[in-house]
Design goal:
- The structure holds 2 protein chains of 2 kinds.
- Helices cover about 35% and strands about 25% of the residues of chain A.
- Chain A is of the alpha/beta class.
- In chain A, the strands form 3 sheets. Chain A has a 9-stranded mixed beta sheet, sandwiched between helices.
- Chain B is an alpha/beta fold.
- Chain B folds into 2 domains: about 1-55 and about 130-280, P-loop containing nucleotide triphosphate hydrolases (Rossmann fold, 3-Layer(aba) Sandwich); about 65-115, Alpha-Beta Plaits (2-Layer Sandwich).
- Helix content of chain B is about 35%, strand content about 25%.
- Chain B is built from 10 helices and 11 strands.
- Chain B has helices at about 15-25, 75-80, 105-110, 150-160, 175-185, 195-210, 230-235, 250-255, 260-265, 265-280, and strands at about 1-5, 30-35, 50-65, 85-90, 95, 115-130, 135-140, 165-170, 185-190, 215-220, 240-245.
- In chain B, the strands form 2 sheets. A 9-stranded mixed beta sheet of chain B has the order 3-6-7-2-8-1-9-10-11, sandwiched between helices.
- Classes of the chains: A alpha/beta, B alpha/beta.
Chain lengths: ~290, ~300
């Protein structure tokens, strides 16, 4: 069974919730799909790991010795990546989308495509199972593809070890890496917070899950920051037929545990928040249907 | 001058800083624009009552294949680097998978039989608003179920121009959407929190910015919830710390209701006034070596 934790809005507590789930029960495979800002490895310190490089998208590079500055590439590029500066064709690495169009139409064959191999994927064991995570090199695109690679590796690890559950920590937002994370999973947990931004972003990410993902449940984290807003979110969940998995109080011990390199359920097993998290996790993996 | 407010980690307070800084600068009568570049989760307009001035759809051109004119040569499919043209010549199947298409135009150029035309597909919208004091908010909003916000972000940055002070509220992370936003900024303020997650993502942001030859300054939000790891790192890396904002449930509550703390809490108003002074002083002359002249604790 694959469970994905996502949020729409960043910083609502996805990774802390995932860390708690990952240490709340049976051994499992954890996959950090937030390849842009992978953090769970800080809590789980996976050991005996293997690293693999991930080959990212193409970037166009001009060979100025061959280029005649005819400008054909510039006129066809739809990403505004190519400009002529001081008699030279310059390609902006940040704007280049890697479509290869310019390199195909250059009459002088002066444009080469290079691929970055700076992104990495790691896998190893941690104290309650296996962990797989990706780290996207800065400025890279195609993070969705790296997420798919992380998911494949997690499935492989689950197959090899006989572990039944894959728990994924997803990225914020609603774009390609989020779609890659939720596509085809069994359960989706959306972690939100009782703020207007939390609600707005929840609505948007919920729409994505309806198209691409499995059964959705919502956790309202730090509900006591604004209980009226938490009620509003709860009402919204009910109206859309999405299960409310629970409300979690704001508790500084979550951060304390993070600093100690532990999940809150490990470090403070008797705290109310830990008990709530364990309950939610048990419900999720037993039937999931409320 | 463009100032980007960014962070590697999500939810550290980018929008909080950007909206309040914008509010203080507008109330002073500065010519200021706020561009919400977090096109996947645009929330800035929750904090303002403003009039919509115009809305422009952001589109890209997607191919339409006329099967009657197609000679089944497969060149379009080979030229597509995104696997967006599904092609089975024996079964006479050729389909465009619009979700994978990046709108580069290579396929229509590649087609030798004139079988490919193009149609616009909407990726999102850029909307310009005018606030009660006449400042502008430009919002980038990607359509739900689209893959990439980059074109919408670019369009919003273009729309917001570079007159006066332009505050870019950046998307989280360090991949393409972030790069597109900070690339156009003269000055980058990173908002972080003093936790191991915050530090890890901050380091990645700083490394990315340094590769782009940009030196950021940092604001530590919820400064008292974690440990000293971020402050130590800033000291070691010689990165200016602009402000430390302590965790305050009253602030969190005002924010949660889509209100501005600079309108309601004097201490917060004075903090953002100082931040605005700092930016106004550097306005027009901000280079890479800007150092803070004050620190708020």
């Amino acid at each position: 069974m694959e469970v994905a934790v996502i949020s729409g809005k960043g910083g609502t507590g996805k990774s802390s919730v995932t860390a708690a789930f990952a240490t709340a029960g049976d051994r499992l495979v954890v996959a950090d799909c937030d390849v842009d800002a992978a953090n769970l490895y800080l809590i789980f310190n996976p050991e005996h790991g293997t690293g693999q490089s991930y080959i990212g998208g193409h970037k166009a590079v001009v060979d100025h010795a061959l280029c005649t500055v005819c400008g054909i590439c510039e006129s066809y590029c739809r990403f505004d990546a190519i400009t002529e500066q001081e008699g030279k064709i310059m390609i902006s690495e940040t704007s280049c989308d890697g479509c290869l169009f310019c390199s195909r139409i250059c009459p002088m064959n002066a444009i080469k495509m290079v691929r970055s191999d700076k992104s990495r994927m790691y896998s190893g064991s941690f104290r309650n199972g296996m962990m797989v995570y990706g780290r996207l090199a800065p400025g890279e695109e195609n993070s969705g593809k790296l997420v798919s690679m992380v998911r494949d590796e997690a499935k492989k690890a689950a197959g090899e070890t006989g572990m039944k559950i894959i728990l994924m920590d997803g990225p914020p937002g609603i774009g390609c890496p989020v779609i890659s994370t939720v596509t085809g999973v069994d359960r989706i947990v959306i972690v939100t917070e009782p703020t207007m931004s939390g609600l707005e972003d929840l609505k948007r990410v919920f729409e994505v899950t309806r198209k691409f993902g499995g059964e959705v449940g919502v956790i309202i984290n730090k509900y006591d920051l604004n209980e009226a807003m938490a009620d509003r979110i709860e009402g919204w969940c009910a109206a859309l037929g999405s299960a409310l998995l629970g409300r979690l109080p704001y508790d500084r011990r979550v951060t304390e545990a993070m600093i100690a390199g532990k999940s809150v359920t490990e470090m403070f097993p008797d705290a109310e928040i830990s008990k709530l998290l364990k309950d939610i996790w048990n419900k999720l993996i037993t039937n999931g249907k409320e | 001058m463009r100032i980007a407010v960014a962070s590697g980690k999500g939810g550290t307070g980018k929008t909080f800083v950007a909206t309040n800084l914008f509010n203080v600068l507008s109330r002073r009568g500065e010519r200021v624009t706020l561009a919400d570049c977090d096109a996947e989760a645009p929330d800035d307009m929750l904090f303002f009552s403003a009039e919509k001035v115009r809305e422009t759809e952001v589109t890209h051109q997607v191919p339409v294949i006329n099967k009657d004119a197609c000679t089944w040569c497969g060149r379009c499919s080979r030229w597509c680097n995104y696997n967006a043209i599904f092609y089975l010549p024996n079964a006479k199947v050729i389909e465009v998978i619009e979700n994978l298409c990046h709108g580069c135009g290579a396929c229509s150029f590649a087609c030798n039989s004139g079988a490919i035309t193009e149609k616009p597909v909407v990726l999102g919208a850029v909307t310009t608003f005018s606030t009660d004091v006449g400042s502008r908010v430009v919002e980038a909003r990607m359509k739900v179920n689209e893959m990439s916000p980059v074109r919408v972000i670019k369009a919003a940055i273009k729309e917001s121009g570079d007159e006066g002070i332009v505050i870019l509220d950046a998307p989280p992370g360090t991949s393409c959407p972030f790069i597109q936003t900070v690339d156009k900024a003269d000055y980058v303020v990173l908002v972080t929190e003093p936790t191991p997650f915050g530090l890890s993502d901050l380091k990645q942001s700083v490394e990315t910015l340094r590769e782009m030859k940009k030196e950021p300054a940092v604001i530590i939000n919820r400064a008292d919830i974690g440990d000293g790891c971020v402050a130590e790192y800033l000291e070691k890396e010689n990165i200016p710390l602009l402000a430390e904002i302590r965790y305050d449930p009253a602030v969190a509550r005002i924010y949660s209701e889509g209100r501005l703390v600079t309108q309601e809490i004097p201490a917060m108003a004075s903090l953002f006034e100082k931040l605005a002074d700092h930016i106004s002083e550097g306005y027009g002359t901000v280079g890479q070596n800007i150092r803070p002249t004050w620190k708020w604790r």
